[in-house]
């Protein structure tokens, strides 16, 4: 399976708490809900199209716990995204998750990167990471991400957990897509190329 990450980020790279003020208040974060004003039917249709390409969801513990509170309630016949989220197999990378009731679910309690590599080796389409910024960052550093989808909201949050740390693994990407929704969200899609290369600018 191809490993694909989809992350909602602000202009300053914050991924924390996009959906509501109470989604993630860790480390005193109080500015949640910054992504919601830019949602509109066009982007929801895109989100549904992406989910339809998934054969599994890969989540971190915090995101799984958050999703497991909310998504089981979104299981109405007219909620296509909710039906997909609830039906898809979930894999949770966590050694500390106490209970996992939102299924179908498998908890990866061993060496997470090795177990994720084994998942990638299975036949299938996409293994998708949604949210789970800390997990996404670790997967990028390990070179396991095949495709990176960023949905950038036109807002500077100013504080919060950021997707790209101050120090990380240098990685070259190839741009596959860059467009803007009617609500102002910028969709950027990249595939991983490998190590970057460097040149010296030569004046013409």
What does this structure look like?
Helix content is 23%, strand content 25%. With 204 residues, it is α/β, with parallel strands linked by helices. The chain has one domain (2-194): Dihydrofolate Reductase, subunit A (3-Layer(aba) Sandwich), CATH 3.40.430.10. It has an 8-stranded mixed sheet with strand order 4-3-2-5-1-6-8-7. Strand 7 and strand 8 (186-194) form a beta hairpin. Helix 1 packs parallel to helix 3. The longest helix has 11 residues, at 41-51.
Sum this structure up briefly:
This protein has 204 residues and is α/β, with parallel strands linked by helices. Helices cover 23% and strands 25% of the residues.
Strand line-up in the sheet with most strands: 4-3-2-5-1-6-8-7
Number of strands: 8
- The proportion of strand residues reads 25-35%
Q: Could you tell me the CATH topology label.
A: Dihydrofolate Reductase, subunit A
Oligomerization state: single chain
Order of helices and strands: EHEHHEEHEHEEE
User: What is the CATH class designation?
Assistant: Alpha Beta
CATH architectural designation: 3-Layer(aba) Sandwich
Q: What shape does the CA trace take?
A: globular
Overall mean confidence score, pLDDT: 93
Largest sheet: 8 strands, mixed
* CATH homology group: Dihydrofolate Reductase, subunit A
Supply the number of helical segments. 5
Question: Could you list the spans in which at least 5 consecutive residues all have pLDDT below 50?
Answer: none
What count of structural domains?
Answer: 1
* Rg over C-alpha atoms, rounded to the nearest angstrom: 17 Å
Helix content: 10-25%
Strand-pairing-aware structural class: alpha/beta
Span from first to last CA? 45 Å
